[in-house]
Amino acid sequence: MKSVIPVTVVDIKVACSQCNLRELCLPFGLDPNEIDQLDELVGSRRKIKRQQHLYRSGDSFEAIYAIRAGSFKTDVILEDGRDQVTGFQMTGEVLGLDGISTEHHSCNAIALEDSEVCVIPFTRLEELSREVESLQHQFHKIMSREIVRDHGVMMLLGSMRAEERLAAFLLNMSQRFTARGFSPSEFHLRMTRDEIGSYLGLKLETVSRAFSRFQEEGLVAVQQKHIRILDTPGLKRLLNHHAA
Amino acid sequence: MKSVIPVTVVDIKVACSQCNLRELCLPFGLDPNEIDQLDELVGSRRKIKRQQHLYRSGDSFEAIYAIRAGSFKTDVILEDGRDQVTGFQMTGEVLGLDGISTEHHSCNAIALEDSEVCVIPFTRLEELSREVESLQHQFHKIMSREIVRDHGVMMLLGSMRAEERLAAFLLNMSQRFTARGFSPSEFHLRMTRDEIGSYLGLKLETVSRAFSRFQEEGLVAVQQKHIRILDTPGLKRLLNHHAA
DNA sequence: GGGGCCCTTTGATCCACGTCAATACTGTTT
DNA sequence: AAACAGTATTGACGTGGATCAAAGGGCCCC
Fold first, then answer.
1. Angle, to 10 degrees, between the axis of helix A133-159 and the axis of helix A162-179?
2. Number of domains in chain B
3. Which helix (H) or strand (E) holds B108?
4. Largest CB tally within 10 Å, which of A122, B47, B221, B225?
5. Residue-averaged pLDDT of chain B
6. Which of A155, A237, A242 is best to mutate for the B interface (most B CBs within 10 A)?
7. B152/A76 CB distance under 8 A
8. Whole-number pLDDT of residue A80
9. Higher model confidence: residue B214 or residue B17?
């Protein structure tokens, strides 16, 4: 079927100024004129199919990526094959910051579903952020946020028990879905039990058992990847009321 | 006793340009003129006694800190009292990046020995890094390095066994001492077994036992906090030759 | 719309590390 | 030089989560 509306590449391109994710992403805090400058910088968009790599560990670092649609995981792989999921990323979040330090990426970024990213050439971002103070500051905040987030994961991996880890994970997902205008209590996980387990430092069986236990206790309703949180305070209690 | 040599504050102040840590720290990659500009920005130095806080979680964020002498740990504390050491920092490394994201620090920084830091007011650092490209880039690299380092710790906490974790820790310490001109094979740890354990997600007894085991196997000679690495390849083998 | 494969769940057993406890060492204070 | 407090080592025992195993379910691709 032919489209009656002529569509050009320019039409398809969604500018930062029009993007409904701008409050979560790099444009946050910029005025309209500054956003236009950022728009010029965002060279292209790239579609990544489910299970495909956005970049691989070792790839030379050229750009960072803002997620426009879909979601990703990042992981690190050891020589002996063991791997560790280091994070799950949703729309509006930025990928690739790991590459700045050595000019090469140090982890893999893999799409959990068909996704689309905005490619932000890093040299040009540094140029522009030398001119636009608010962009510079927002970029620094985004990097810092990643550091803080990682500390939270270290806390989780280093001193929490299995059910606490999963509760923290679910509450974190809920909060991030909420920030994107979705339901805080009902969502669809894009990752497998194995990937959740790798992220949380647990085996997939342990993740599955913890889900079942939460279900028995009436905290959540689980149906495969579909999650309904029934008792948010109950989950929060799991986190804090653990005598040291 | 009176000093015969007149000493002014200016004399005491050690400029970045004179600092033997500049290759590890913020000045890396700057030309002499740029280093002078950075020097002006580094307002003051601060001495922190052993066990004292450089900053606490919740403190408002004003500056980042470069370690001139001594060493620190950072930790995160949960409401129920559990805490997690998120890192150990040595001379030339930068502390406080966690505070950028919310304008408040999100962890505690505590001196492991009597130490001294250079205070770098953050607003002024952002100003100068808008003018000095090489400073901007070095700062971004430092933040990115922290992210990469954290991913390494997540790998360690999420998928390594106790002895692998300790081996990785010792090799990391060795490498960092080497970068500072100290012996790669013989050094003094500033932190307790409990702090190492917290960092590695292990109990202090497990850390102690792993040390003893390494000693039995001739990998290291341990005498309390004094460590002599006898078989570096052996320690490395512990890390990689673990069938998944 | 059917077939195959991956994902998930659940059970039984095992083991690495945690817990509890006692003792020894070390550096610091008086 | 003695006393102390914090730190470290070592042993005995318990347990949370890993491992091994098997069956069921759902989703994706053809």
1. 160
2. 2
3. strand B108-111
4. A122
5. 92
6. A155
7. yes
8. 86
9. B214
